[in-house]
Write a structure and sequence with these properties.
The complex is a heterodimer of chains A (660) and B (270). Chain A has 660 residues and is mostly helical. Chain A has 27 helices and seven strands. Chain A is 54% helix and 4% strand. Chain B has two domains: 219 residues, Rossmann fold; 33 residues. In chain B, helix 2 packs across helix 5 and helix 3 packs across helix 4. Classes of the chains: A mainly alpha (660), B alpha/beta (270).
């Protein structure tokens, strides 16, 4: 055995041992998290891994065209994984392991693939560097040292690859020289004409550079954001197979802890998420809070959870007290209360995250700690919580007032066996003067189509969506139990909901409470009524140019994108105009997640931002399907002095106005 | 030392309607709430507990279902809750009510020294603002009404300095303890119960003091001990003024009419 081999064996063993040690110390912290079964439906999970990371659907999505660079790098990396494995094994046992021992055809093919993959990887690294230096997008930390270290290591690896093979080709010892165009170029043009001794030395030096950089790269991974190379594929495997549109229930019993105050109160998957973040910044690029200058930046939040786990985790294993608070310590590794309250739970971050990090449940978990364990929340919420608890609506209006619209719309009480649908009007629909017009319009449409429907009137209760998203799970639990019981007692089977928040709560949240009603949003129902030919239009609905706004809880939360658009097209004979951010990437109005009831005192107003986006399309009508969006746009138009030229209409109002 | 907070359970007045025929209040099916003026009184007592470690006792006179209101106070951090409930206490006016409450407080004072008694400025159903004053008089405490700030509490020399919110001005006064303090809503923002405290309060006991414990002569309490009686409750008929527009359904129009009317009467000018 040569001295070179012996030295390499020692370095290799030390490197692998250190890498193993690093991984063990990082991953054992994940085990501190609470249990969460992410093993159901293995077939789907395997498909997720094939479809998202391996087919790179994760990076080439949502219009992020530069993702193609990552896809190229990923696949070059996958191919070179074979080359590098061979490289290491060959280094350990040069006489026994070598690809050159393969049949010539196979060897030549592989040599060609590796050579081409290496130059492609090098070019991809160059374009990544140019992007970071010359035209960096706003949502990444372009000058991140971490990124340049990794890009530098990869580039060095590729250059060493060409140097090493080039020298071998120049020496005439490479059998596949004719199949390695880039290495051959290096060998003949750059290294050509060197003495035998110099070539021998060059081959050796490049070999060692390649070996050391490769092992350094491996050992650097667990300590950098490039840990995602190790974690993102498993994270895609363990992803939530269903849309993350609800929150886990809590058990209320004495001695229990509610929400997350310490990082080890998260689930293991939450902690694993924090290791998977690549800091690609797509969440920031879509977060309404981050884009309007708030404290919340989803990627920072995830980063802080990771840092907190790294700081506290080793101590937690030995039952020590935390050295850094998860919430409110104003340091790296701690999430500010401000950031926690900034979230509109719009889900844009989760929608665009290439590695399926679930941001919103973590935020709600921390809100739960603040509300349930500490009763610490923005002061505006006190009245809100008390109004909901006392009178089951956000404004504290007397429950009898829920019936105020009924006479005008000819609404009748729901009767089991007689009425087909319960029309769950919702707090806004029943009590907010503007939204009441929407309710009346919905009623008119239902009547025109001959739908059999009834209401609960003053017995109807608030669904509790905002309460749950604001972290008051205790109150939500009481409300959900009451509502499910009431709906079951009334013999309700099918429910029409005109508020996406009520829709999502009845449909997805209440499932945890044994509800199995058929829930239908008015946009879905109206669309199917049109398709069945049950609604006739006069063809002269005067709405001008209609731009459609996707409500987060209808779109991202429940994938209802096309139905309202089809309805608009059917009524106006024209496809609705689209804002730049639409469908999956729609921008929140600012009212979700309980933000409707909170002041927005920092940064720009989210509703103004969204209104500006809508006004860019020069609409005559902004169409929404949500009472919160309605309020936000109407306020936004007032802010922009456009309330006289542009109007906001609910889908039902457009349909009702165009009925024959 | 003990700080007492007096609370009253009242019908949710936003949900009370008058019978159009008889003109009386329909109380049936109307939910009860804590008198909104009393929540800051309890909060102020709890703040003193946080700062000085006083024992907070919350007391209320009312029917047995008042227990719910008192449990809410326990969930907020009150140490003890006393419910003064007995048929013979029923029908009491402010005179008879303050008699019972004052007796209960002096009974508490046998357990430990009383630092202060907090009441809301008035109740939203009776609106008399007399009970706090009545308690102070019977106990011989100084009464500090309409307090919007407690500026100093000097325990060694047993003095309290408060700011009273009067019309168009503030008044800062100092008095020896114990004092009876009625508070305005601006004094603080009441706290919200944590879940562990809510669950704990569900199991904790509200002490029931009926008249076999209080041993008060019946001629001083209840209907018999009351100097006044409610003869009739009715909504007064509007004799002047007019309702402009339909504010509920057409707020823009109503606002325009209001502005026009105010301009005409020179209340505002452009």
């Amino acid at each position: 055995m040569s001295a070179n081999t012996l030295i390499f064996i020692v370095i290799f063993i030390i490197s692998i041992a250190f890498f193993g040690w690093s991984c063990y110390h990082r991953f054992r912290l994940v085990a501190l998290g609470k249990s969460d079964n992410r093993f159901k439906d293995i077939a789907k999970r395997i498909w997720s891994v094939i479809y998202y990371p391996f087919a790179q659907r994760c990076t080439i999505s949502h219009g992020y065209r530069f993702g193609i660079n990552h896809a190229i790098l990923f696949w070059a990396f996958m191919l070179l994984l074979i080359a590098n494995t061979e490289f290491l094994l060959h280094g350990l046992a040069p006489d026994y392991i070598s690809l050159s021992k393969l049949p010539a055809g196979a060897y030549h093919t592989l040599a060609w693939i590796f050579d081409i993959a290496s130059i492609i990887a090098l070019l991809a690294v160059c374009s990544a560097v140019i992007r970071r230096l010359v035209f960096p997008p706003s949502y990444i930390d372009a000058k991140s040292g971490d990124a340049f270290i990794i890009l530098g290591l990869i580039a060095t690896l590729m250059i060493a690859f060409f140097g090493m093979h080039g020298a071998e080709i120049a020496q005439g010892v490479e059998k596949a020289a004719g199949y390695m165009p880039i290495s051959a170029f290096t060998g003949t043009i750059i290294l050509g004409g060197m003495s035998a001794w110099a070539l021998e030395t060059a081959a050796n030096v490049f070999w060692w550079i390649h070996a050391i950089v490769l092992l350094a790269f491996l050992n650097y991974l667990p300590y950098s954001k490039h840990m995602h190379i190790l974690t993102s594929i498993p994270n895609c495997f363990f992803r939530s197979l269903e849309k993350v549109n609800t929150q886990p229930r809590e058990e209320f019993a004495k001695g229990n802890i509610y929400g997350v105050e310490r990082v080890d109160q998260f689930t293991w998957k939450d902690l694993f998420d924090s290791y998977s973040c690549t800091e690609c910044g797509r969440c920031v690029d879509n977060c309404p809070a981050a884009l309007t200058g708030k404290a919340l930046e989803p990627k920072e939040l995830i980063h802080n959870i990771k840092v907190n786990m790294l700081k506290n985790g080793p101590g937690f294993i030995q039952n020590k007290e935390p050295v850094l608070s998860l919430i409110g310590d104003d340091k790296e590794g701690s999430v500010s209360e401000e950031a926690i309250w900034d979230c509109t739970t719009c889900g844009a971050c989760m929608e665009v995250c290439p590695v399926f990090i679930e941001h919103v449940p973590k935020i709600v978990d921390m809100r739960r700690d603040l509300v349930e364990m500490k009763a610490k929340f923005p002061p505006e919420l006190l009245n809100f919580f008390e109004n909901i608890e006392g009178r089951s609506n956000p404004w504290g209006i007397a429950p009898e007032k829920r019936t105020a619209w009924m006479e005008e719309a000819g609404a009748k009480p729901f009767e089991a066996g007689v009425t087909e649908y319960l029309f769950y009007v919702g707090c806004a629909g029943a009590l907010d003067p503007r939204s009441r017009h929407v309710t009346v319009a919905t009623a008119k449409v239902l009547n025109a189509a001959g739908v059999s429907w009834g209401v609960l009137g003053k017995e109807e209760l608030c669904c509790g969506d905002s309460v749950r998203r604001l972290g008051n799970e205790y109150l939500f639990d009481v409300m959900a139990k009451k509502n499910v019981k009431l709906l079951k007692e009334k013999g309700v089977q099918k429910i029409i909901v005109q508020c996406p928040h009520g829709y999502n709560t009845l449909k997805n949240d209440y499932r945890q409470y044994g509800a199995d009603f058929e829930i239908i949003h008015h946009a879905e129902l109206i669309n199917s009524l049109i398709e069945q030919g049950r609604l006739k239009f006069n063809g002269n609905g005067d709405f001008g140019k209609v731009v459609f706004h996707d409500s987060c809880y209808l779109g991202r939360y429940n994938s209802i994108y096309e139905q309202p658009r089809k309805v608009i097209a059917a009524v106006t004979n024209k496809e609705p105009a689209e804002m730049e951010r639409n469908r999956e990437k729609a921008f929140c109005c600012g009212g979700g997640g309980g933000r409707m009831w909170l002041e927005e005192s920092v940064g720009d107003r989210i509703y103004v931002e969204r209104t500006e986006q809508a006004l860019k399309e020069e609409p005559d009508t902004i169409c929404t399907c949500c009472p919160y969006c309605m309020t936000m746009f109407e306020d936004g138009l007032k802010d922009k002095d456009s309330e006289d030229s542009v109007r906001v209409l609910d889908l039902a109002e457009i349909v009702a106005a165009a009925l024959e | 030392m003990i700080v007492v907070a007096c609370v009253k359970q009242v019908p949710d007045t936003t949900q009370v309607k008058t019978d159009p025929v008889t003109g009386t209040l329909i109380r049936e099916g109307v939910p009860f709430i804590v008198n909104p003026f009393d929540s800051p009184a309890l909060e102020e007592a709890l703040k003193l507990k946080d700062k000085y470690g006083f024992r907070v006792v919350v007391i209320s006179m009312g029917p047995p279902n008042t227990e719910v209101t008192l449990k809410k106070a326990l969930a907020l951090g009150a140490d003890d809750a006393v419910l003064l409930s007995d048929r013979v206490f029923g029908g009491a006016d402010t005179l008879a009510t303050s008699k019972v409450l004052a007796e209960a407080i002096s009974k508490l004072s046998q357990e430990d020294e009383i630092a202060a008694v907090f009441c809301g400025r008035q109740s939203i159903d009776g609106d008399t603002a007399q009970v706090g004053a009545g308690i102070a008089t019977r106990l011989g405490y100084t009464q500090l009404t309409l307090v919007d700030q407690i500026q100093e509490l000097d325990l060694p020399i047993k003095k309290v300095k408060v700011r009273r919110k009067l019309e168009g001005r503030h008044e800062v006064v100092e008095t020896p303890l114990p004092a009876l303090i009625t508070v305005v809503r601006e004094i603080n923002q009441p706290r919200y119960p944590t879940v562990p405290m809510r669950l704990m309060s569900g199991d904790s006991e509200v002490k029931l003091w009926n008249n076999s414990i209080m041993e008060l002569p019946t001629e001083l309490i209840g209907l018999e001990g009351s100097a006044t009686q409610v003869r009739k409750i009715f909504s007064p008929e509007r004799t002047e003024g007019e309702i402009l527009g339909d504010g509920e359904n057409n707020p823009d129009e109503a606002a325009r009419l209001l502005i026009d009317a105010m301009l005409q009467k020179d209340i505002i000018s452009i």
